[in-house]
Every structure is written in C-alpha cells, then in structure tokens.
Design a protein that fits this description.
- By secondary structure, the chain is an alpha/beta fold.
- Helix content is 29%, strand content 19%.
- An eight-stranded parallel beta sheet has the order 9-6-5-4-3-2-1-10. A six-stranded mixed beta sheet has the order 11-16-15-14-12-13, with helices on both faces.
- A hairpin with a 2-residue loop joins β7 and β8.
- α8 packs parallel to α10.
- The longest helix has 17 residues.
- The protein is globular and about 75 Å long.
- Bound molecules: alpha-D-glucopyranose.
C-alpha cells in the first residue's frame, strides 16, 4: 500500500478507531473466549464490543488455523479492512526449541545464532505469527534475576553481536516474506539491572553507565533494522521507560533515527500509575503519547483517555496520528494489507515443527553453547563403559527452559535417551525422579543410586533448576542447588565414584558447594529439544566443548554483582592489603570469569604483536597515530593438544586514564576458529577509534588520546597485554 493511502486511512479513522488501533489485546478478549498465555497480572479492562472490533493487534495466539480464523472474522467486520498484526514471545524457538539465549551467547557463533532465528521465523510464520518479541538484549550482571536466561550476558559488544544476528535471522532481507517475522528488541532500557536482582524493581544509574554498558546492544539491533522496540517496565532516571521522552524520543528517535514501532510491555502503561508518575489514566495516556508510545499492550489507558485529552487540548490529533501511522507502516512492511494471513499455513507448520533440519541446528547450537567448567581427567567418556546416570533432569523432557513458546516436552531428547543412544544397556539409571511443579527438592534416593551404580566407575548427575524458576517473575536469593541434589553428588563421590555434574540452569548458580566433589562440571543451561543428543555429543567427545561464559559465575550470592568489565576503584585489591576494596570472607574474583570455558584440548597464545606507527613514546611504550591508520594487533594461537577444537580468541581493551573512570577491560572483538592438533594460526584485529571511545559525562561519544592496554587471550582473566600510547 502506498504511503498516501496509509495517510488517507488514518484521516478516515475516528478517535475510537485510532485508540484501539494503538491497543494490543489477547485473542480471548477479541473472541470473548477464555484468556490464555497471560504473561502479566491482568486487571479487568472494560472494552465494548465496538471497541474490540477495532483492536490493532493480538498477543500470544498460536496455530495457523486459529489465527487465520480470527483474522478472517475480524476483517469481515472491519470497516477499514486494517488487518490485525499477531505478535508472540518466540524467544528461542517456536516448536523446535533451541538453547536459551544466555546459552546461545556462550557459543560466540553469530552465524549459528542467526540460523536458529531464521528457522524459528519459518516455524512461527507458518504458525501465523507476524512479529516476535525477541531478541531480548538487557545487559545482565545479577543472576538473582530470573530473566538473565533471556539475555546474551554481561558484555555490551557480545550482546550486540547476538541481538543483531537474531534480527537478521528473524527478518531476513524482506520482512514481508512468508518465512520471515518482524523482530522486537527489548526491554528498552536497562531492565536487566533491577536493585537486588528483584524482578520489576527500581533501576537507577548514571547516563554514562547507561550509554556505555546498557544501550549498545539495543542500538546494534536498531542498526540491524529491527522493526519494533519494546519499552521496559522499569524506571530510568526515576521515569518509567514506558513514558520516558529521554529514552523513547531523544535517544531512540532523534539520536538513533529509529523509524519503527514502539510497544509497551504487558500492561506497563497502566503501571505508570503504580510508579506514581500518573494519577489516573488521563495523565498516563498523555505522558505515554508525548513519549511516542505507539501501541499499548494489554491495558486500556489509550481507549480510556485519548478522546478526552484531545478535547482538553492536552494532546493533538497529529501526535495520535504519528503513532497510528507507524502501526500501519509496520503492517504495510509486513505485507499484511496485501496478504493478511502472511505465512500462515496449517500444513507447512506441521512439516516444519521439529523437522530434522531444525533439530540438527538445535543440536549443534546446544553443543556449542555448553560450557565445560571443570574436567579432572574424566571427560570425554569412553563408549562401551558402564555409566551411571542420576538426577532430576536425567530422564526429564523439561530441559527447554522458560519462554519456550509452543515447545513440547514430549519432543525433547532427554539426557537419558541421548546417552542410551550411545551406550545402550550399559547405561544404568537411578534416582531420576523429576523435579518440577511445586517440588522443593528431589527425594533422597542416594541409597538406591549407590546400589544401582555398584558396577559403575563413573556417574553422570543431571541437576539444576525447574524451568519456571527461571525467566520472568523468577528472582531468587538462594542460588545453591536444593540439598538432596547436592547430597546425590556428595554421596556418589564419597563412595568412590567419579562424578560428572551436568547443570541445567537458566542462570549462573552458586556451585561452590558441589565443585569439590565433581570431577567434571558441564554448564548445560536449558539446551532445548535436542538437549540429550547434544549432551551425548559433548560427553563422548564427538563435539569438543567450546562454549565460553558470557556471564561470570559468582563464588556465592554475597559476591553479586560480579562482572569482568568493572572499574578499578581507588583501592584495587591487588594485594591482601586490609585497606583495599575487598571482602573479609571471599576473594573479589568470580569463580569463573567472562569468556571462560575448557576444551578437551589446550590452546596456547604467544607472540603478541602491535603494528604501531608512532615509534616510541617519551614514556617508553610504543606510540600510534590513529589518524594515520588503525592499529593492528596479532597473536599466535596454537592447539597444543591431541584433538581438534574450536577456540574463541578474545580482544580486550583498557583505556588506562580518561576524563571519567574507565573499565579494567572491555571486550572489543573476538574470532572463533577451529584448529587441528598442533595447528597454529595468527589471529589479527584492527583497533579502530570507535573501539577506543566511550560516553563522557556530557553524553558525548569521545576518543581521548592516551595510554591504552591491548589484551588478547583465552578469557577475561587469561590475556597477554601490550601497552601503547594512542593519539
Ligand atoms: C511480559 C514480558 C515481555 C513479553 C510480554 C508479552 O511481561 O516482560 O518480555 O514480551 O510480557 O508476553
């Protein structure tokens, strides 16, 4: 449809029709059936039938036939024939479930992340979905918060790489294509930093920290052409993001040039009254409209307020039309005016759901996402040996994780099935009672396990969280495993077994209590539909583990937040000086740092070189003139072991002194490469001015000449460093 036609459409709409076009409802409200798939507290809003017939969008309806039926009935009654846009939380797969996003980030494999998103779009579009509320790119540093599972982690650069890859996978080159869906970056902004890790809690930080750490990943998605932005529940600078002109107009529209549609989070427009920045729906409606909030999800503020606000002159029709036009433009880019059913296809959805090709990608990505944290000579396992398998996640299909959309546990390849595919009847299982629902812990089946495993030298123990203990509304203050899960590990070890602990969690847990009694620890996250096969691939060495942590593991919950890109403070704990920034009872360093992950081989870094063009600085280090060309750095990486493996060579930079404090190091690039035994490669990076720049306290993105440390290595605490004066 031409733009002029869209403008004429807007002109012909009444204020009620416009307010409803700016409202997203649940299909139960449109069709007067049971409300389903609610992802927030639902306060009754009274919509008249006439209003409902003009709703602009539907949240969380699933299935091509149902969506086609609703769209057909809706358009038959619609005066303007504006199609509904169907949106849903397709976060890490639709029916084929891929690893949770926190796991996907650990793969450091943007191409595979994009491939998974592309396959997800195929399934979602065939099921009738037009837009997914993904990627989530909230920077996270606090594993008490349940939604860390949805994020790529604690680093702005990696999070941006992952978010942009997902946007490309979902949208492709033409988002109106039948196998593509619109993507929505969320939650704008900084939802990942709630005080105390407590869900929906206050977020407060300086604008410099917001811009240096929390905004870059969202911007990477905007630069990748994301169609929508979802505002977050939380406040920023004491203003709810939902009505923040600083975020939604100054940064998103004016600075970043975002032209797409902004949607609120679930009933978040209603909640700005709870935040006490609006006394009633009129004030809430006015503030959200002034901020440029285009569509209201699952509440009735706009329909209750716009007409009166217009009469009072508090808002203008132009301000309303700006939002309505962006909604119609989104529908137009999705091709819905030409084909309101887009990719919906009841036959195709059945062919695509958990098809071999999608399962293969899910299996590969799950294996690449798993992080080997410890291995003392027990992995890889030898086929043909009798192995014990225990734990509540051993035989459970509940390895999909939170936000697993239309995923079905019966489609899951369980850990037991994955290992039995290799071991046959040499796999002995015991103490595998599932752990879900309201269960606080597993039963104490250690005696049965010891009896069953009497001929097993090695025992694999699959422990972790319940799926609903992660994701939204799942903050926790205790991050250790339940006592009987820990007891299983301790008891098997105490009885002479070699213990391989598999962790199925949506967050870095406090694993200190079980580390000593585990001969190997594999962080499996929630690996998705192919989890069992991926675990078998890793445990038997068919895939050499290459996952690298994108979120630090704390030694205990008291150490939180602990993250790699922190500031030095005036009293860094470089020695055990009492009067330095430290704890009396715990080291500062995390249990495992950002970028960490073991392999079945060893990688050695050597011969780091800087190709600086500025000779020697008077203070003795190398110098480089940036304007005369980028600074090239390189390092030799060798596979010093006996098996091939993938390694993530990481580039970190430290600005040693700035007009404001600067982090001890920041990831500015990485290269993932596979090396054969004894093979070595030179890995090169170009240092650009952008990599060296940051936001000062005037919110200006600046490069300040001076001393920099360039670091290359295996993880945040294992690098080779060269200093250089850059101007
Ligand atoms: C939820 C979540 C958001 C999700 C939305 C729709 O409350 O915060 O991530 O997309 O509601 O389900």
């Amino acid at each position: 449809m031409e733009r002029k036609d869209l403008l004429n459409l807007v002109k012909d709409m009444t204020i009620t029709e416009k307010a409803m076009q700016m409202t997203q409802l649940n299909s139960g409200m449109i069709c007067h059936t049971q409300l389903t798939n609610l992802t927030g507290p639902f306060r009754e809003w009274s919509f008249t039938d006439e209003q409902v017939e003009h709703a602009g969008s539907i949240l969380a309806t699933r299935g091509a036939e149902e969506i086609m039926r609703i769209q057909k009935e809706y358009l038959e009654k619609s005066k303007h024939k504006i199609p509904l846009v169907f949106m849903d939380d397709v976060i890490h797969g639709y029916r084929t479930i891929y690893p949770i996003p926190l796991a996907q980030g650990c793969s450091f494999d943007a191409d595979l992340i994009e491939q998974a998103a592309s396959e997800t779009a195929k399934e979602a579009s065939a099921a009738g979905i037009h837009v997914t509320f993904s990627p989530m790119a909230d920077l996270v540093r606090d594993p008490r918060w349940g939604r860390v599972m949805e994020s790529p982690g604690e680093d702005p650069y990696l999070a941006g790489v992952a978010a942009a890859a997902m946007v490309r996978g979902y949208q492709g080159e033409d988002v109106s294509a039948k196998d593509k869906v619109g993507a929505c970056i969320k939650h704008f902004a900084a939802y990942g930093q709630p005080e105390g890790g407590r869900e929906y809690n206050t977020v407060d930080m300086s604008r410099g920290v917001l811009r240096d750490f929390y905004l870059p990943a969202y911007k990477a998605a905007v630069d990748a052409g994301v169609e929508l932005v979802m505002a977050s529940f939380n406040t920023v600078e004491r203003v709810p993001a939902t009505c923040s002109q600083y975020l939604l107009r100054q940064i998103l529209r004016e600075e970043w040039g975002f032209k797409g549609m902004v949607i609120s989070d679930f009933a978040a427009m209603d909640e700005i009254m709870n935040h006490c920045v609006a006394a009633d729906a009129y004030e809430a409606g006015e503030k959200c409209l002034k901020a440029g909030m285009d569509m209201e999800m699952m509440s009735g503020v706009y329909i209750a307020s716009l007409e009166k606000l217009l009469e009072e002159g508090a808002i203008t029709m132009d301000e309303i039309d700006e939002c309505v036009l962006r909604i119609l433009e989104l529908k137009n880019r999705l091709g819905l005016f030409e084909n309101p059913y887009k990719g919906a296809d009841p036959e195709l959805e059945k062919e695509l759901f958990c098809c071999d090709a999608h399962r293969e990608t899910a299996r590969k990505l799950a294996a690449e996402s798993m992080v080997l944290l410890k291995n003392e000579g027990v992995l890889p396992l030898q086929e043909g040996k009798t192995i014990g398998l225990a734990g509540p996640l051993a035989s459970s299909g509940r390895i999909l994780g939170a936000w697993s959309c239309d995923g079905r546990i019966e489609d899951s390849i369980t850990i037991e099935r994955g290992l039995r595919n290799v071991l046959g009847d040499k796999l002995v299982t015991a103490a595998t009672t599932e752990f879900f629902g309201e269960a606080i812990d597993i039963p104490d089946d250690t005696e049965a396990a010891l009896e069953a495993f009497k001929d097993c030298e090695i025992c694999v123990v699959a422990v972790g969280e319940k799926e609903w203990e992660t994701g939204e509304a799942a903050s926790k203050t205790v991050l250790t495993l339940p006592p009987n899960q820990e007891k299983l590990i301790h008891t098997l070890k105490a009885n002479g077994k070699k213990v391989v602990t598999l962790l199925f969690t949506g967050r870095p847990m406090d694993i200190t209590p079980i580390l000593g009694d585990s001969d190997a620890v594999l962080q499996a996250w929630f690996p998705g539909t192919e989890g069992g096969n991926a675990i078998a691939d890793i445990l038997f060495g068919r895939v050499n583990p290459c996952g690298r942590l994108t979120m630090s593991f704390p030694r205990n919950v008291g150490q939180i937040p602990v993250y790699y890109n922190c500031y030095n403070t005036g009293r860094p704990n470089v020695s055990d000086d009492k009067y330095s920034s430290r704890y009396l009872d715990c080291p500062n360093a995390p249990l495992y740092p950002f970028g960490y992950g073991l392999s079945y081989t060893q990688f050695a870094y050597s011969d780091m070189k800087l190709e600086a063009n500025g000779g020697t600085h008077p203070r003795g280090m190398q110098a480089h003139e940036l304007d005369a060309g980028t600074l090239k750095v390189s390092v030799k990486v060798k596979n010093a072991g006996a098996v091939s493996g993938a390694v993530v060579a990481q580039l970190y930079i430290r600005d040693v002194s700035g007009s404001v404090v600067r982090p001890l190091k920041e990831l500015k690039g990485y290269q993932k490469l596979t090396l054969q035994p004894q093979e070595e490669q030179i890995v090169e990076f170009e240092i650009t001015k952008e990599m060296l720049s940051f936001y000062n306290n005037d919110e200006k993105f600046v490069f300040e000449p001076g001393l920099f440390e360039i670091m290359l290595g295996n993880h945040a605490e294992d690098v080779i460093t060269e200093s250089v004066w850059i101007r």
